[in-house]
Write a structure and sequence with these properties.
alpha+beta, 2 domains, 10-stranded mixed beta sheet, 12 strands, MacB_PCD, transmembrane transporter activity, cell membrane, membrane
């Protein structure tokens, strides 16, 4: 009789122990399959979040480092913005991790041949500024400005346009082809009030001592839903309808010669938020940027908010797979070892009859493999349900913990409060559901792990007994 037929008969003859092994093996397979399925679903959700949000890194002046330096030297804290060289900023845009970028240079101006949108208190403040002189009290040009100019490379890559607060309704966006040209994109309300259309020109004067005047051709009109800031009620230039988008070269011209070929900040959009750290490290190592003055600030809080809980669940599930695999092999190994010790007489008889040792080992392995095949089949049928229940429970715990961490203590129970009440983080929803689906890859991994457990749990214990001679085995029986 071959060893495989004997293994079938042995499994059938020892129904109680076989059912016990099947139950334990099924539990092990279900946990392993659930871990694999949750990990796959979390990776898929993470990839979707990456595509939806991406990640961004901002190059700007390191205000905190400057403050600490001034305090350490005993000086009074005074901030003076240091412009960033355009060449250095553009250098980072060529890195492989970057899918898009934008350069910003901001200034204020004075409308020469058109009327800005007035706020409620603008007229009063205008009368006051006229009495203060051309540059306001203490020579501050802020009181004289009535429009703001946002210098960029791409208007479609400006945050307000990407998040939907502003929308181009006529004409075209500013692009890198617009650099060096005197063009502008204005708000629809400002255009309607002044009967301006695409192709018309407006004149803006710089609100500084140089008082440079520049004529701008309107190439686009946008509409904004941005609310006016309270502190801007008395200043026309802070009214969102008076915001003009121009190439950063135009803004620099109005700011003066000292700002030529410089910008205020740069924003880089990553292909993958996971590459932010490598991008920053590469920039610090290879770029010409002075990181004693400037810094790269990673703005990946939206991505972390969305995928933080599912990444924690995926990490936990991965650890469960390792833990269950090892502990499952140990538990089954102990059960098989006890079973083999009870079958010493059977093995002694077979060995005395000339049966090969490797065939006896093959019999024990085959017995566990039969159980393993049944357990894998059962767990495959129930895997989606079990994995879904486990993922829902784990994810609910992670979400509850994150909400508790991000909710200020002053919030009363029932007030809501939310995950990520800081800045932009409130604009996205945390992923609170995983689409669990058992894939062929998961089943393949389960089969490999299950077979590995079966072989280890039967092969190793059998060696401890089969190393003995048949005579020794038979003479030691009671």
């Amino acid at each position: 009789m071959n060893f495989f037929k004997r293994s079938l008969l042995s499994v059938w003859a020892r129904k109680g122990k076989s059912l016990l092994q099947l139950f334990i093996f099924t539990i092990i397979c279900l946990l392993v399959l659930s871990g694999l399925a949750i990990e796959s679903a979390a990776k898929k959700a993470s990839d979707l979040a990456k595509e939806k949000l991406g990640g961004e890194v901002t190059l700007q002046m390191d205000m905190e480092k400057m403050r600490n330096q001034q305090q350490s030297e005993g000086e009074r804290t005074r901030f003076q913005l240091e412009p960033i060289p355009v060449k250095s900023a553009e250098e980072l845009s060529t890195y492989s991790e970057v899918k898009g970028y934008n350069l910003y240079s901001s200034t204020n101006g004075i409308a020469e041949d058109f009327d800005p949108i007035e706020n409620e208190d603008t007229s009063d403040s205008d009368e006051e500024t006229e009495n203060r002189g051309p540059f306001g009290e203490n020579g501050n040009p802020m009181f004289q400005s009535d429009v703001s100019l946002q210098g960029v490379v791409f208007t479609d890559a400006v945050e307000e346009f990407m998040n939907g607060d502003s929308t181009l309704v006529e004409g075209e966006h500013i692009t890198d082809q617009s650099l060096g040209k005197n063009v502008v994109v204005i708000e629809k309300t400002l255009a309607d009030e002044n009967d301006l259309t695409v192709g018309d020109t407006i004149t803006v004067k710089g609100a500084n001592e140089e008082e440079k005047t520049i004529e701008l051709k309107i190439i686009g009109i946008y509409e904004t839903t941005t609310n006016e800031q309270d502190q801007g009620m008395n200043f026309s230039f802070m009214n969102p309808y008076n915001k003009l988008y121009v190439p950063y070269t135009v803004a620099n011209t109005l700011k003066g010669e000292d700002y030529e070929n410089t910008i205020d900040r740069a924003v880089y959009y990553m292909k993958d938020p996971a590459e932010i750290d490598s991008f920053i490290q590469k920039a610090k190592k290879n770029s010409s940027i002075d990181f004693d003055t400037f810094k790269l600030d990673a703005n990946d809080q939206l991505y972390n908010q969305m995928v933080g809980p599912i990444n924690n669940v995926a990490s936990f599930s991965k650890n469960v797979v390792y833990l269950v695999t090892i502990s499952g092999a140990v538990i089954l190994g102990l059960i098989v070892m006890l079973s083999i010790r009870e079958r010493k007489y059977e093995m002694g008889v077979l060995l005395s009859l000339g049966e090969k040792r490797w065939k006896l080992i093959g019999q024990f392995v085959a017995e566990i493999l039969i159980v393993a095949v049944l357990a894998i089949g059962i767990s495959s049928a129930c895997g989606n349900v079990v994995a879904g229940k486990i993922s829902d429970q784990l994810l609910a715990q992670e979400l509850a913990q994150q909400e508790q961490m991000n909710t200020p203590p002053s919030f009363r129970p029932g007030m809501g409060g939310s995950v990520g009440m800081r800045g932009q983080a409130a604009n996205v929803e945390t992923i609170d559901d995983l689409e669990i689906a058992i894939t062929p890859k998961d089943l393949g991994m389960l089969s490999s792990i299950g077979m590995l457990i079966a072989v280890l749990s039967s092969f190793i214990p059998s060696l401890s007994v089969l190393r003995l001679h048949p005579k020794v085995i038979l003479t030691k029986q009671d």
